[in-house]
Amino acid sequence: MNFKVYIPARHASTRLPGKVLQTIGGRTMLELVHARARASGAAEVVIATDDERVAEVAAGFGASVCMTDPDLQSGSDRIAAAAAMRGEADTQVIVNLQGDEPFMPAAVIAQVAAVLARGDDVDIATVCEPLRERAEYIDPNVVKVVRGAGDLALYFSRAPIPFLRDGGAEAWAPGALYRRHVGLYAYTVGFLRRYVAWPPAELELTERLEQLRALANGARIAVPDAAAPCGVGVDTPADLARARALVADPR
After folding, report:
1. Residue ranges of domains in the chain
2. CB neighbours of residue 120 within 10 Å
3. Closest CA to 196 of 113, 100, 82
4. Which residue has the higher pLDDT, 207 or 176?
5. Closest alpha carbon to 153 in 180, 114, 171
6. CA–CA distance, 183 with 206 (Å, rounded to integer)
7. I need a surface site. Which of 34, 86, 140, 219 has the fewest CB within 10 A?
8. Contact 223, 151 (CB under 8 A)
9. The pairing of beta strand 221-222 with beta strand 124-130
10. Dmax over Cα atoms in the chain, in whole Å?
11. Residue 43: pLDDT above 80?
């Protein structure tokens, strides 16, 4: 299977500035993410960035780097720009792996590429995991997904969904319906070009979730359960402290 991994990597993160260059276990987070991508079997791994500091570090550990416009608004825009600069074919499968996912299993990166490549009339492939605690269910920073037949996404939300009518917001009934979305995506370059040309959807702007633009425009998003535990991304200083503690003591 021929797929490539593109890693959008900005330096100007709001909640944790310069986070992709923060170290975990003596290596930058960006290098850890890059290593996961390399282990997935990808034909190529490209770091798309707008910052010379990120580019210099990436080049230092041998990564392919594509410099993009700093005014681009999202990781999807950055990957689309990088793919165009590098002349990628519309049929090329690309996995969008965020630069703040140092624990993403290589098997899951390969999984989303394989789901997209099956040819099931799917525009985007991503994954989800069971919600295991009520705190996650009510946390707006944990994105939930509800699926229909064939594990196709019906909706993504920061709100507690599906909502247990007879129990209310305080209820918690873990089970097969309750899933958190993991922000890892596979799509073709052709679909990505169409996606970034669409204006932001009202639902997307309301929830601040890019994948809702795709749903609002009729895209089909496959969301199977992840093939392996995906760990957590690093968005805040507290996340970084937990990541460092995990590497120091993996128990």
Report:
1. 3-228
2. 12
3. 82
4. 207
5. 180
6. 18
7. 140
8. yes
9. parallel
10. 56
11. yes
Q: What is the pLDDT of residue 231?
A: 84
pLDDT higher than threshold 60 for residue 251: no
Write the pLDDT tens digit of every residue in 63-117: 999 999 998 989 999 999 999 999 999 999 999 999 999 999 999 999 999 999 9
Write out pLDDT tens, residues 108-122. 999 999 999 987 899
CATH number for the domain whose boundaries are 3-228:
3.90.550.10
Cis peptide, bond prior to residue 130, ω within 30 of zero: no
Close Cβ partners of 166 (under 8 Å, ≥ 6 residues apart): none
Tokens of 97: 């792996």
Alpha carbon separation from 153 to 54, 71, 120, 174, 199 (Å, rounded): 34, 30, 14, 19, 21
Per-residue confidence (pLDDT) for residue 170, from 0 to 100: 64
- The single-letter code of the amino acid at 114 is A
Residues 6 or more apart from 82 whose CB is under 8 A from it?
6, 46, 48, 66, 68
